[in-house]
Amino acid sequence: RHCTDIICCVIFIVVILGYIALGIVAWVHGDPRKVIYPTDSYGQFCGQKDTLNENKTILFYFNILKCASPIVLINLQCPTTQLCVSKCPDRFATYIDVQASYRYKPEQWNYFRQFCKPGFNNPRKSVAQVLRDEDCPSMIIPSRPFLKRCFPDFSTKNGVLTVANQTTFKDGRGKTRNVTDLREAANGINNVLDARSVGMRIFEDYAISWYWILIGLFIAMVVSLLFLVLLRFTAGVLFWIFIFGVIGIIGYGIWHCYWEYDHLKGIPGSDLTVYDIGFQTDFRVYLQLRQTWLAFMIILCVVEVIIILMLIFLRNRIRIAIALLKEGSRAIGYIMSTLFYPIVTFILIAICISYWAVTAVFLATSGEPVYKVMANQTLCKYANLTCDPETFNKTNVTKLCPGAQCTFAFYGGESLYHKYIFIFQLANAFVFLWLVNFAIALGQCTLAGAFASYYWASRKPADIPLWPLFSSFGRAIRYHTGSLAFGALILAVVQLIRVILEYLDHKLKGTQNSFTRFLLCCLKCCFWCLEKFLKFINRNAYIMIAIYGKNFCTSAKEAFFLLMRNVVRVAVLDKVTDFLLFLGKILVAGGVGVLAFFFFTRRIPLFAQEAPTLNYYWVPLLTVIIGSYLVAHGFFSVYAMCVDTLFLCFCEDLERNDGSTAKPYFMSASLHRILGKKELSPKKA
């Protein structure tokens, strides 16, 4: 053994160090609180612990009617003062009415002033000055919290939109407004929230339900292990049950089609052809025609004949495939530690995903608070210009634009770092894909080395090394890190291109250019096929690397030509293995997904109180389903890798040996019998 693909190994290590540096820079500049907590006009977070706003978790808009302004979409911020409050208003009130009655109804003033600026308690100040300086809102309306913001409490009464059973309200400036104006304002905010806070809501759901997601993934891990153990004893039985089940179902379909065909005989109109009735939107019409059932019956007969002929002519190869599956089960039985190696792969991938997600969040929240001039006068030339809240009162802006304020607008920045945030996000995604593919490659090469040591052992299990899995892992890390990184790099480049194509397709969905859509569709299809082909080549290349210790390109070439010389066996083995593992993945992902659905929708009485309150219950649900599928895929990859490794060893065994005393076969007795050999020649001790 010697080190392979050293240059790629060096590049890989340098990239990892750069990735760590990127994460450190992102953590220094980023602040995830920006997507967890709403931010008031002073740039302070609502509900943040150990601050004055700790118990004020909801954002309140002074004049929500201003949120219907087009400026909302331009600046992504509603041009009115926003404060953190502990609860939303539950009644209609105007500042004019409250000020006029504060002497003999102080409780109204005490209630109203909790929605004024902190520390303001001067009801004697003139209404004009209060509204100009925005010390208090001109009105409050019954609201309820939604996405941690106060929104009008809309309801419909006899088909009419109302707020607290009222269709009109006073705006505190001498006008009576319709509640439909509030709807327009709320829609204005919703448009901004849709643009800014979908990620925030998803992040909140993950923050609340992450430990339940981990529990779901742990359950998926346990179920996957149990399925692998059972598969050792049921591989052949499951396959033949499925084959004869398919033949039986298709046979029933043929009989049912014939029964329908014969049953419609003599019924008026049933002898018409599909051409006679033309296209019908109600497809049940076609089921009333004898011709339809005759066509179904012919198609099913053809499929049935094809399956039976395949079983007849490929019976020997199917027997070899099943024997290899059983041999794989036997190999796993001798090297039981391989069943637990997917935990290592799972931990490595979990670390990669966690690091990528955290870095992405910190990169997305790397902006500094940006403040802009908010002026009541539309003619103020300083409106929407950036400002500094610490020095704003010393400028002449307040003199030229009475009532103007320097309020928080959004998070951003003009530094070189902030300008290249998108490039950093792209680099974050690329290195993430590279690391994930490397973790998978390391697992495949490690398992292949362990199972190859089983196959090439002359006397099983006596000649199997003491710690085959750990020995194989050590060889892969010590000698072949560069080769594994090379294969992972090629795959990561293709996957990144696919991600970019999907992004472009999403952005250009509304375009009317049919050529562009056609070109994107072709590119997506080509790169999907390329990714599948590369995964197949990489997998077998890693097996050859584990067996012979050659570099990536040489191993990939030898594996490819070896498989091409046994292409029919490859096809049969792949389909038999894919079917069994597909059943397992559906069982694990579907079972855990159903359990997660009932849990997160509070349909399990025993755990109804434990289920977290979520914005979207499908966020943790999809995460659990996809995560369970990936966990099952990781565990079942042990079985698939075992079979693939044994198959390549089997093909090499057939080409290099002839069963003689000088060149004995290393295959098992069952495989030897299927090949039609009389007796297994004794192997060298």
TrEMBL record:
Q: Name one GO molecular function term.
A: antiporter activity
Q: Name one Pfam family in it.
A: Choline_transpo
List GO terms (cellular component aspect). plasma membrane
Species of origin reads Buceros rhinoceros silvestris
The name on file for this protein is Choline transporter-like protein
Q: Which reaction does it catalyse?
A: choline(out) + n H(+)(in) = choline(in) + n H(+)(out)
Record field: transmembrane: 7-28, 210-230, 237-255, 293-314, 334-358, 431-456, 477-501, 579-600, 621-641
Topology in the lipid bilayer: Multi-pass membrane protein
